[in-house]
Design a protein that fits this description.
The structure holds 4 protein chains of 4 kinds.
Chain B lengths: L24 H15 L2 H4 L2 H26 L8 H18 L3 H25 L4 H20 L10 E2 L18 H23 L1 H11 L1 H6 L4 H27 L1 E2 L1 H5 L1 H14 L6 H21 L14 H16 L3 H15 L1
Antiparallel strand pairs in B: 1-2
Helix pairs in contact in B: 1-7, 3-7, 3-10, 3-12, 3-13, 4-5, 4-6, 4-10, 5-10, 7-8, 7-10, 8-10, 12-13, 12-15, 13-14
Chain C lengths: L16 H27 L2 H32 L6 H19 L7 H20 L7 H23 L13 E4 L2 E4 H23 L1 H11 L1 H6 L4 H23 L9 H16 L4 H21 L5 H15 L10
Antiparallel strand pairs in C: 1-2
Chain D lengths: L1 E12 L2 E12 L3 E5 L6 H8 L7 E6 L2 E2 L5 H7 L1 E3 L12 H9 L6 H14 L15 H14 L4 E5 L7 H18 L2 E5 L3 H7 L2 E6 L2 E6 L1 H6 L1 H8 L10
Parallel strand pairs in D: 3-8, 3-9, 6-7, 7-8
Antiparallel strand pairs in D: 1-2, 1-4, 4-5, 9-10
The chains are: A alpha/beta, B mainly alpha, C mainly alpha, D alpha/beta.
């Protein structure tokens, strides 16, 4: 009797065990062979391809894959005699400790550099691993600025940091509202209460106040539990603010849009800052008309760049979905590492690090110029762009040199 | 109320099992020593990625041992062990980052804080006589409150959490070594071995026996002089302190902690699932459980990255590890309520008796 | 909840039960009034507080709706069903799927979700929770915990994490003395009240309801008078799950559907159940409203804190001071 | 001098008067039987004496000091120990472990503890079962275990709740002998609830009759059985209940 029970329970276990052996063998065997020597140059990509961020993670992994293919198609790494590049992928599952052990695995498998990871908490851990192993880590999407306060030598970032986006958001707001003849004087801020939203709101507040705008009320919320924002929007309405700034994730930002539609506060604009929804095609389809004319300041793929268009078209054909900004950033990150290898003419991670620090690449994301990393590891030419939903499409509207159309500084209701 | 099913069998069956050894803990200590010795060379043999899994297993082990003392031996079902894990992690991280205190001191401080908080939560729960589901829900509520409070407290860096500053080279005093160094495993091994040793000592101490008796029948235990409140508090304090060690070590190993990682409900669930799968209320259950649960996510991750043919639709999807341990949890609770180790041990004992 | 003492004194019902309940309702009402007054002082804006109260009550209705099935199961089977939130998530996905495929009105998906969840509930009880393995409280807790992990991650594995949204056709907004109420929330609220009444009526006036109450108060006794306790348990569990099905159809236009949405409601629902008194469906509704208010007022009192913090504070106080709930009697 | 003294003890359960104004005094070395129909409040009385329940009014004095509402373990450690009517063994322990647990608070060292426990186990005749799980014991064994556990705690006053119920007549004798011996050898004071009248008659110095939470009568066994009120109370239920079950 008990034996039968045991078998029943252990059945699942044995399935695992066999799978485990089969699965882990190749990664172990690959061991120290790659990286140095003659094999392809390995670039490690860490993304959450499972878990609640899986959709974005998979996009980014594919973006990185496209970059690798592009490099190989154009002849590999020239300074190494045309050696090919290969992407070594890993799933962080969205968990910092998994990200950390996977990063360690990629490095011991011979990766010359890492890209990733979409989530700040995971990137924090991976940055530590990179620093200790002296392997460069180029972040594609990572909002938190905190990582760059430790003086890490091996951490780089392509996207603009949270503070930079917020500062741009304040500037753009001042300029766009001025041009529309309705200068923003009083700005309400609604932000989710973790690092991401709070950081964005803090930076925005500082920048906006410097530009002479009054910020208030500031309302924070817990994105994991909030299910209705009517009260918060009523508070905004009662405060007499001209503009509502929203720094949140997707679901909560959608709920906020619904509450705005219900309460109809007397605003001139809704202004997303590093917002997870207001520049997403999905938001346009989920929110429908009530999302019309929402603004969002964020990092973004460069819709004006023909290269970007070509890449996104290829992505859409290959994978049947529109390519998101995160994937384009991963593409840029891989390019940065490849450029570093090219520059260094070596696969020694420490040399690659110096190569990356010297390299310049033309990004497919919006920037003020080629990707070039400052001494702190930040992309000195990273830039945020203002987008707006117009007629059911997300369009770049500001600054003028990146604009697909003019900002429409009036609300839809 | 009289028992009518009178059994006439006089208690005169042939002699039962022989008396157990006077100090049953001696054998358990011996087993522990052997296990520890066997584990020592592991980090030198395993590839680095597996070495990381081994450390994770040891962290799980410490957590599960902590949980088991309170919920297995003590029968007080905790759904909020994340509270103690998190307090250990945060106390040590706070002292290290803000005040430069050695992580070892931080670990000790974390144990004290966790034990104190456990006693406060415990005191109120026992004072107001919370039992079973209500007790479980109360412990859960306290862990969640800690998570929410840390998330919005600037004093402990809010939602950002703490990143342990890197030092040059390695230092036992700072509990920091180069990446992939076997020292992490060895230190975790010592801590885990210590936790198991403590649980053996406790189980066989006068206090431990009282606690088990109180679990079996609180009023009956009190009626023969077992100090109920004092021993329950002692148990939760010990349990909290051990779990805090896991938290403090976690912070040092992963060099990063935030409210969700420290106090999130998944931490509590991991502690529970580990102990339950291995065997609640046994010394070795948490050890067995940790090996299984700790390696599971790694195994499924490889499985999902390169799935065999019949599972190819699972590629790039997630949740399989949790699904597997959920299925295991349900099956084990249904079919082997004493857990893998508990059930096996019972089988062996029964066979020996025949 | 009292210590298990083999007392030979049977317990009797206090004659003034109704009076006591009314008295407590008065106390709670007064507390709420004071809380609102403090919020008024704190925020200084009547309309904001009024909107908060309205939103709190509407959200609270949703919580009550979700908690009803849970309280039924808790009260009759003494099972803390940790999988209730996950079952809700399953039902929401079902509802979303039906809307996406057939274009049915979201509320009409109840025709699918209620029977489907009834079946799920029956299967779960028969398969996992009845019999010896499901006997002890710890085991039930662990099994439902395992089930919730299983369902949540199953949804994640097969349907992905991308949030899904359903919009209510013909969504309107009403003005209630200056506060805005969206139609979908009002309907969900009314649905909660209706479901509460239906359950109450079912429990009080049908044979099944009588049997359920009999099993809840004394299952060995019920067995003696010829009630099949195991069947009643399965039916109750199934009805509790079906309530989650109904709640899902009513709530689906309000929320983004994700595999983990159950977590968000699970703990709140437990608070509501304990607050309302286990097994008390009307108590669940009232408890839901109170928790909805607490959440909203927390955001006014403690800016920057999660609204859940207030909920947990209330929860812990209730657990310690009145574990039998506001309207329950000590058992 | 009385070792146990109750005065004006009152206990209500939600309107029902489980104990009303109970007065009781037990002298050192005395054996007192407590009888009364089911629901008379006998077990509640024990619960109040031993601290499992707090009385609503009145006081319990043990050995001259007030122990009203003290914790059960404090009272037990002072030397007033009870058994339970429904046996409550520690299910996860062996018989010997059950017994040694009770001796733990006054014994140092594992060897001494084991000796003490085995002495008591032998005294109640459970030696053969010493190292088996307590839950494996038959009812009669469990009854003895209850007794053994109480004895191991070194009681000066022992409160026995229906320690004979469920035993065959043949099994009762050794228990009765043991109880008599306890008083003689150890000087233990005994208060016991019992339905079996023959045992009450044989053992008790004094009998306390309870009905509906109140003390109906006290006196020697002969006095009490002659008391018309007592006869009334019993006729209301059944003639000498369980007299020879």
């Amino acid at each position: 009797m008990i034996v039968r029970r045991l078998i029943a329970v252990l059945g699942a276990g044995s399935l695992l065990a066999t799978a485990g052996c089969g699965g882990s063998a190749p990664s172990g065997a690959a061991g120290d062979a790659a990286g140095s020597g003659d094999g392809p140059v390995r670039i490690g990509a860490l993304h959450p391809v499972s878990g609640s961020m899986a959709v974005d993670g998979l996009q980014m992994r594919r973006g990185a894959q496209l970059a690798v293919e592009q490099i190989n198609d154009s002849g590999g790494i020239a300074s190494l005699g045309g050696r090919e590049v290969r992407l070594a992928t890993a799933d962080t599952q969205g968990k910092p400790e998994i990200g950390q052990s996977e990063a360690q695995r990629l490095i011991s498998d011979g990766a010359v550099g890492l890209i990733g990871t979409y989530q700040s908490s995971v990137s924090s851990n991976v940055a530590v691993v990179a620093e200790r192993n002296e392997v460069p880590f180029v972040m594609d999407v990572t909002a938190s600025d905190e990582i760059f306060q430790h003086g890490y030598r091996y951490s780089f970032r392509v996207q603009p940091g949270s503070a930079k986006i917020s500062e741009s958001a304040a500037e753009y707001l001042e300029q766009v509202s001025e041009q529309a003849g309705k200068p923003a004087e009083r700005v309400a801020v609604l932000h989710e209460h973790t690092d991401f939203g709070t950081g964005a709101a803090d930076a925005f507040e500082t920048a906006a106040e410097k530009l002479g705008m009054e910020v208030g009320p500031r309302i924070s919320y817990d994105a994991t539990t909030a299910s209705d924002f009517t009260s918060q929007i009523t508070q905004v309405k009662a405060s007499g603010a001209d503009v509502l700034v929203v720094a949140g994730y997707y679901g909560d930002s959608l709920l906020i849009a619904q509450a705005v539609d219900a309460v109809k506060p007397d605003l001139d604009a809704v202004w997303g800052v590093s917002n997870g929804a207001y520049d997403q095609p999905k938001f346009v389809s989920d929110a429908g008309e009530l999302g019309d004319r929402y603004f969002s300041t964020n990092y973004h793929f460069d819709a004006q760049n023909p290269e970007t268009r070509r890449l996104r078209e290829e992505y859409r054909q290959r994978f049947g979905a529109p390519m998101r900004t995160g994937a384009v950033l991963s593409y840029d990150a891989v390019q940065a590492i490849a450029a570093g290898v090219e520059e260094a003419g070596s696969t020694d991670p420490a040399a690659v690090r110096n190569g990356i620090a010297r390299a310049e690449i033309d990004p497919l994301t919006v920037g003020d110029g080629p990707v070039r990393f400052g001494p702190d590891g930040e992309n000195v030419n990273s830039a945020a762009v203002l987008m707006q939903i117009q007629n059911g499409r997300v369009k770049q509207v500001y600054p003028p040199e990146k604009a697909e159309s003019d900002p429409d500084y009036s609300v839809a209701w | 109320m009289t028992d009518t099913a009178v059994e006439s069998r006089p208690p005169t069956r042939p002699a039962g099992p022989a008396a157990p050894p006077l100090r049953p803990q001696n054998r358990q200590f011996a087993v522990l020593a052997v296990l520890v010795l066997l584990a020592v060379p592991l980090p030198l043999i395993l590839p680095p990625a597996q070495g990381a899994v081994a450390v994770r297993i040891l962290i799980f082990l410490i957590m599960a041992v902590g949980w088991n003392i309170m919920s297995g031996f003590g029968g007080m079902f905790s759904f909020g062990h994340a509270a103690y894990f998190g307090l250990g992690a945060y106390t040590s991280a706070y002292l290290l980052v803000e005040h430069g205190v050695s992580p070892w001191v931080g670990m000790a401080a974390g144990m004290v804080v966790a034990a104190a908080v456990a006693m406060v939560i415990g005191y109120f729960s026992f004072r107001y006589d919370l039992k079973g589901a209500y007790f479980a829900l109360a412990t859960f509520a306290f862990a969640e409150m800690l998570r929410l409070i840390t998330t919005s407290s600037d004093a402990v860096n809010g939602a950002v959490g703490y990143q342990v500053p890197l030092i040059q080279g390695s230092s036992v005093g700072q509990l920091q070594f180069p990446a992939g160094s076997p020292a992490y495993f060895w230190i975790a091994l010592v801590l885990a071995g210590g936790a198991v040793a403590l649980s053996i000592l406790f189980r066989h101490s006068a206090a431990g026996r009282y606690v088990v008796a109180i679990r079996d029948d609180e009023l009956a235990a009190a009626s023969v002089g077992a100090p109920v409140m004092r021993h329950k508090l002692l148990t939760v304090a010990l349990s909290g302190a051990i779990t805090a060690v896991a938290g403090a070590f976690y912070t040092q190993y992963y060099l990063f902690i935030d409210p969700q990682l420290a106090f999130g409900s998944s931490v509590s669930i991991e502690a529970i699932v580990t102990a339950v799968i291995g065997g609640i209320g046994t010394i070795w259950g948490p050890v067995v459980g940790a090996v299984i649960v700790g390696s599971l996510s790694d195994v499924t991750a490889t499985l999902l990255a390169t799935p065999p043919e019949f599972l190819s639709f699972l590629q790039g999807r997630s949740g399989l590890d949790v699904i597997l341990y959920a299925v295991m949890l349900i099956l084990i609770v249904r079919l082997m309520p004493k857990g893998i180790f508990g059930t096996l041990a019972e089988k062996v004992a029964e066979r020996r008796r025949r | 909840m009292t210590a298990t003492i083999d007392s030979d004194a049977p317990e009797t019902r206090a004659p003034s039960a109704t009076v006591a309940v009314l008295k407590r309702a008065g106390v709670v009402g007064a507390l709420v009034a004071v809380a609102i007054a403090v919020a008024l002082i704190q925020s200084g804006s009547g309309i904001v507080v009024w909107q908060s109260v309205v939103t709190g009550l509407l959200t609270g209705g949703l919580y009550g709706l979700i908690a009803m099935g849970l309280t039924l199961i808790f009260g009759v089977l003494d099972i803390v069903n940790f999988a209730h939130g996950a079952m809700l998530a399953v039902a929401m996905f079902l509802s979303f799927g039906v809307v996406a495929v057939t274009g049915l009105h979201p509320y009409l998906t109840m025709l699918v979700t209620v029977p489907a969840l009834f079946l799920v509930g029956a299967l779960v009880h028969r398969g996992l929770l009845s019999g010896a393995g499901g006997a002890t409280l710890e085991n039930q807790l662990l099994i439902t915990l395992g089930l919730s992990l299983l369902l949540e991650n199953g949804l994640l594995l097969f349907l992905g994490a991308e949030p899904k949204n359903v919009t209510l056709p013909g969504e309107t907004h009403l003005d209630v003395f200056g506060a805005v109420v969206s139609g979908s929330r009002l309907y969900a609220f009314l649905g909660a009240v209706a479901l509460g009444l239906v359950l109450y009526w079912m429990l009080q006036h049908t044979r099944l309801g009588t049997a359920i109450r009999a099993v809840a108060s004394n299952s060995p006794g019920a067995e003696l008078v010829g009630i099949n306790v195991r069947r009643i348990h399965t039916l109750t569990f199934a009805i509790g799950a079906a309530c989650a099905g109904a709640a899902a159809a009513l709530a689906v236009p309000l929320l983004s559907v994700t595999p983990t949405l159950g977590e968000q409601f699970n703990i709140t629902a437990f608070v509501v159940v304990v607050l309302g008194g286990m097994g008390n469906v009307v108590g669940a509704l009232v408890g839901g409203l109170l928790i909805g208010l607490v959440e909203q007022l927390t955001t006014i009192y403690l800016d920057g804190q999660s609204s859940l913090l207030g909920v947990f504070v209330v929860f812990v106080l209730v657990l310690f001071l009145r574990p039998q709930g506001l309207f329950g009697r000590r058992t | 001098m009385s070792v146990l003294e109750l005065s004006g003890v009152d206990k209500k359960f939600r309107g029902l008067h489980a104990l009303s104004d109970v007065e009781m005094s037990v002298s050192e070395g005395e054996i007192v039987g407590v009888i009364g129909p089911n629901g008379a409040g006998k077990t509640t009385l024990f619960n109040v004496i031993c601290g499992a329940l707090k009385p609503d009014a009145g006081s319990v004095h043990f050995d001259g000091s007030d122990v009203t509402g003290r914790k059960p373990e404090k009272i037990a450690r002072r030397g007033m120990v009870r058994t339970f009517q429904l046996m409550r063994p520690f299910a996860s322990m062996t018989v010997a472990e059950n017994v040694s647990l009770a001796a733990q608070h006054h014994t140092r060292g594992p060897e001494r503890l084991r000796e003490r426990a085995m002495e008591v186990v032998e005294r109640v005749g459970l030696t053969e079962w010493a190292h088996r799980r307590a839950t494996e014991l038959p009812t009669a064994g469990l009854k003895r275990l209850e007794l053994a556990r109480a004895l191991a705690a070194r009681p000066r006053v022992l409160l026995l709740d229906e320690v004979l119920a469920g035993l065959l007549p043949a099994e009762r004798e050794p228990v009765l002998d043991l109880l008599a011996e306890l008083r003689q050898q150890d000087g233990t004071t005994l208060v016991f609830i019992e339905h079996i009248m023959a045992a009450v008659m044989r053992l008790s110095d004094r009998v306390l009759v309870m009905d509906q939470g109140a003390v109906l009568a006290t006196g020697t066994p002969d006095e009490v059985t002659a008391d018309p009120r007592v006869i009334d109370a019993y006729l209301g239920e059944e003639p000498t209940p369980h007299a020879d079950a």
